Predict the 3D structure of the following.
Amino acid sequence: MKMENMLKMISFLCLLLLSFSAHAVSPENISLFIEQWQKENQIPAVALAIKVPGKNPIRYLKGTTTLNGTTKITDRSLFGVGSITKTFVAATILQLQEAHKINLEDSISKYFPEYPRWGEVTIRQLLNMTSGIPNFTRTEIFKKLIENEPNMYHPLSFFVDLAYEQKDEFTPGKNWYYSNTNYYLLGMIIEKITKQSLPYEFQQRFFKPLHLNNTYYSIDTYPTHIYKQQVHAYLNNKDVTKENPSYYGPAGCILMNTKDLLTWTQALFMPGKVLSSYSLDELMKTQAVPLSPPKPDGSRYGLGIYSLDIPNYGLVWWYTGVINGYSSILMWIPSRQIIIVAQVDRWRDNNFGLLMPGQKFINTILENIRG
């Protein structure tokens, strides 16, 4: 009997060691694939970083800062991360709950008496997209504004008012619907509670302590030196780099380089680094997401983060952030302790899902990581 137990223990330890063994990445294969994929999709710049346990990140920087340009991107080059911005908003709200300044079950009526129709919506429902509040970015007014006045500044309340004029999607808590308005409201709540601006809060809570020295959030146009660091963004052939950040605000306007995006991903999922274990558990309480390509089937949404079961990898946490021209992805694979982040600066013909899980790019990267 003792021998049987010993054999079981040895078998268990072997499986454990195999699960967390050193991962072999095929740098040459990945490099060749990126170059081919970049050419096929006519993307000026692609940045990728892969972190496996016990090794320094492997980074790939391909292409130029402008379409048909000659200046190559560097490790300081900035891309828009789109809705990955929502992870910073969610983390701030959870930190405020840890400080007993807010409760996820609070209704938003105490913060927004001017929007009585949304009075029963809770903070949690804003975070996990179950509020039923309309998405202002889908309105014709928003589309015309960003097309005709891309450099114009608008306060957060301008876009929330625009959403309030629309019909609600459903009764709060009864369904799931992706609405950027939710995160504009959360941004306004953070400013009401802290009496500080979102740029200040992000800087003090995350950018400064985590040494995210190439990460920027602005409520208006960026300074010239930051603009010069940006890889230019393209919708088809149109340069949309200088669109005013207020059009995406707390729903999607952060700029980051790949190194900072990797650092943020690692910190966000490390208990005690950004969030307590309790808050991280809250972050990971997910809702089913209706089928909505190019999002992969089976996706679930937590508090500003997606999850997905991927064959051979198990449960994976991810976010693909998209704004005009830019797309970025963060991916955390707990079973292998692997982080993948990638960024591009052009999408064509409304093909904004290039970096979604289930698409060729991410599938190929995962195939080339062995463990």
